[in-house]
What we know:
The protein is built from five helices and five strands. It has about 140 residues and is an alpha+beta fold. A hairpin with a 5-residue loop joins strand 3 (about 110-120) and strand 4 (about 125-130). The protein starts with a helix and ends with a strand. About 5% of the residues are buried.
Amino acid sequence: MKRWMMIFLVLAVVATGCAKKSEESASPSPTAGATVAPSTGASATPGATNGTGGGTSATATPAAGGNDTTKDEPLPQITKEQADKISMTSTYDDLVKQTGAKGKLVKDENGKKTYDFAISNQPGYIAEIVYFADGMISEKKVFRK
């Protein structure tokens, strides 16, 4: 009798766990798909209908090229000592005052901005600092590129 109760209990837990996972995965997929697909389709359709599809494509190409040139720009440099002095309570403005460098914005997503700095007295090392939307530091990492 105990064995049957345990089997039933395990099956009930597994069934409810699977049901919750499918609900969670079902919600984000339609939202993300609905947001992304119409934006891309909406941009391409009017350009093709107006006969200026080439203009639309040409506009998109330089924007991508602009991003590539930003990748080629050298990172602002700070020293290892300056990177160590950055406290987890510093704001972005505090960082700029302390180091004299603004940093290179490499990522801006989900309300977080990521800035990279090259460490001048340690070639090949990069300081990466992530800020929340409110301006407070979320993460600070130094790593070898």
